């Protein structure tokens, strides 16, 4: 019996993302390999609708459901909706096939354009389209193809010549009877160098429906053709037909070792902090291997109904609608916004370089300025290294990297910011330093440029004092790393115009950020809440808890890191500088924890010094520091505090109540317009677990009576300096 070579033609985005993996799984079950030929450019399947009017078309498609295999959306590509770029959207699926050991090659650039036009097009058109597919193939796979297979089996002389110029070894560009052997074409330039292996067997869709034949009859017919023929054959499958035909219930469950299943389950549980839905999801996956599909689907439906009405689901819906409300408000302001194209970033440190990356990735032209040559060089290197890593990891194409870096300039000259539409100051948190910067900005910026400061704690009104036109000054508080973190606080000053704030909102949207608007106040929204949160954790240190216990309790609650691990990562000296600045205005009767000051005086600044609340080895792994525990015990003794045991729940409860109280202050002081903006800020900027909703959501779930009782206890525990807020604002 003849051997059959399997060739898979992939014409569409859906076929690439769904049909190809389906076929790959089936081939793997039987230990088979195939040649996958990919369409690499736009999916313009909708253009093929004009074929409806060709003789015989309707008769053919009546035997196989076009809608079932291609889907309505695919049939509209290029007609009512833009055709997606297959090579960009499905590169990962293509590379997976290559990695799995299947042969990969070029099918075409634009399937419909090629199939319908190539026979009447000239050599220039032909080679241009083929070159696009070649370049994209190399970009995706990192190597050149050895094979080709024409879309619709349509070619012209120039196309065959191009295959030889590329060095293609063999190709499958036509149809033939089952007894035809491989051959070399006679071309205008002479005998072709590449070998043609035409499709010699009819395709499934050509057999199904003929004389009432179903899929089984079609297979039987193919075997009859090959059984009596000694020649090897080429059989063409279509990812959109055979690949999309498989139903989930008909697929075999992949085999897996019990140890591998246990490892994956434990990993998922750890990543998901053992939340109920994670446990149930694991159970449902294991069910797929142990119970019938109908029974499994019924169980999944039952579990879904349970999860749908859970508090976690309610919390996620709260976050969703809070963010939708925020973005609706954003769109209402868009009419007043100023168009921005050029951004200048002052300060090339960690924050400045991160802001520059965020702006470059959003398509802005960016100028980075720093008067320190060393700092500037370091910032430029960070930016260049970022884009190099994106290229190496396959997350950006070479063209996009080149485009981003092509929009990037840098210098130490203030005059270079003269053309900027928006200037973002991101220098050291010192009022005098920022005043000096604003003076230079005023001298060199164009009159209609907007000016933003990235300060975390300083009074923006005081910063803007040096600006000739305070109406164009506002705050843009990014979170580190600025190119990663979703949250951005937009700070409205007394003089900030509506147009400036509207522009800030649209700028944040283009950056892909989630913006919240804050009035100018100490710590704005997020840092104000976080400062109260950290202060409460320091109270518990004095009372008997350890840094390890507090961090663990809050990490189990859902925070990515506990407060003391975060402090070590960001640097204890930053908060220390802030406390020293506030010392003169601090009420001496207010409760104040000196433990972090003692650590800083000893040079314990966190990870960067190898010690903070924890000790750190060369790999950054943290361990308990006995000296820190001694410092904490001595601090308790100095205040005559009898240390006691804490439960994890008590730690979490005190933290949450503290956050709720601080949010209520922000609402009553009109620092924030909507209390739910605080939930958005904490989830997107401070690692508050999204599935917990945020302190406002949790306060509403508690109810006012229970919240008031909890606050009575918190006030007593916190001691002098605790300012109780009007809680009613949380429920409005």
Describe this structure in words.
The chain is of the alpha/beta class and 732 residues long. It folds into four domains: 4-250, TIM Barrel (Alpha-Beta Barrel), CATH 3.20.20.370; 258-309; 340-520, NAD(P)-binding Rossmann-like Domain (Rossmann fold, 3-Layer(aba) Sandwich); 527-731, Orthogonal Bundle (N-(1-d-carboxylethyl)-l-norvaline Dehydrogenase, domain 2), CATH 1.10.1040. Helix content is 50%, strand content 11%. α13 (258-271) runs antiparallel to α14 and α18 (373-392) runs antiparallel to α19 (398-406). It is globular, with a radius of gyration of 32 Å.
Primary descriptors:
4 domains, 8-stranded mixed sheet, 50% helix, 732 residues, alpha/beta, TIM Barrel, Rossmann fold, 32 helices
Q: Topology, please?
A:
Elements: E1 4-10, H1 13-29, E2 35-39, H2 57-61, H3 66-70, H4 72-76, H5 86-89, H6 91-99, E3 103-108, H7 111-117, H8 123-141, E4 147-148, H9 157-166, E5 170-171, E6 186-187, E7 190-191, E8 195-196, H10 204-207, H11 215-227, E9 233-238, H12 242-245, H13 258-271, H14 276-290, H15 293-308, H16 311-333, E10 342-346, H17 350-361, E11 365-369, H18 373-392, H19 398-406, E12 408-411, E13 422-425, H20 431-444, E14 450-453, H21 460-464, E15 473-478, E16 487-492, H22 498-510, E17 514-519, H23 526-543, H24 547-557, H25 563-570, H26 572-582, H27 595-601, E18 614-616, E19 622-624, H28 626-638, H29 648-668, H30 676-685, H31 695-702, H32 704-718
Parallel strand pairs: 1-2, 1-9, 2-3, 4-5, 5-8, 10-11, 10-13, 11-12, 13-14, 14-15, 16-17
Antiparallel strand pairs: 6-7, 15-16, 18-19
Helix pairs in contact: 8-9, 13-14, 14-15, 16-30, 17-18, 18-19, 23-29, 24-29, 29-31, 29-32
